[in-house]
Amino acid sequence: MSNIITLTEADAAADYFPDMQVWYTLLTGGTHQDLHWVKFKPGSIYPLHSHPYEQTSIVVQGRMRLTVGDEVREVGPGDMWFVPSNVPHGGEILGDEPVIFIDVYSPPGGHEGDVTYY
Q1: What kind and span of H or E run contains 34?
Q2: What is the pLDDT of residues 38-86, one digit of tens each?
Q3: CA distance 59 to 64
Q4: pTM score, two decimals?
Q5: Residue 79, C-beta contacts closer than 8 angstroms, at least 6 positions apart
Q6: What's the pLDDT score for residue 113?
Q7: Which helix (H) or strand (E) holds 10?
Q8: 51: closest CA among 88, 92, 103, 23?
Q9: What architecture is domain 24-108?
């Protein structure tokens, strides 16, 4: 994939994982970070999980009740979150449209191809 990625290209590149009701793809990886695209079906769950790398995420579409550590908030398009290493996070998809968000992971490579976190 190129360094400039449209939403349409990200959607087309994603694989669907029916047991988790999620589409997911690693868009690009660099020396210091990875860029991921995630889309959850309405009514699904972004499972509570943690991992050893830092995560920064931005909602592109939809609404979700998000948990990061002890904080719980409803987030929607344009909202962002940061997850430090090993902090539990996840959410409940709200409404009747899919939730799409972009994830940046640092350091890179720790999440590549592993949808068990979704």
Answers
A1: strand 34-40
A2: 999 999 999 999 999 999 999 999 999 999 999 999 999 999 999 999 9
A3: 9
A4: 0.88
A5: 58, 59
A6: 52
A7: helix 7-13
A8: 88
A9: Sandwich (2.60)
State phi, psi for 7 to the nearest 5 degrees: -60, -40
Look up tokens 């939809």; give the residue: 62
Q: Looking at beta carbons, which pairs linking 92-96 to residues 24 or more positions away fall under 8 Å?
A: 92/45, 92/46, 92/64, 92/65, 93/40, 93/41, 93/42, 93/43, 93/44, 93/45, 93/46, 93/62, 93/63, 93/64, 94/62, 94/63, 94/64, 94/65, 95/42, 95/62, 95/63, 96/42, 96/43
* Residue 112 and residue 26 in contact, taking contact as beta carbons nearer than 8 Å: yes
Instruction: Please compute, for residue 102, the number of CA atoms within 13 A of its CA located in the half-sphere on the CB side.
Output: 17
Give the closest residue to 37 by CA, choosing from 102, 91, 83.
102
Domain limits, the chain: 24-108
Q: Is residue 88 classed as helix, strand or coil in its secondary structure?
A: coil
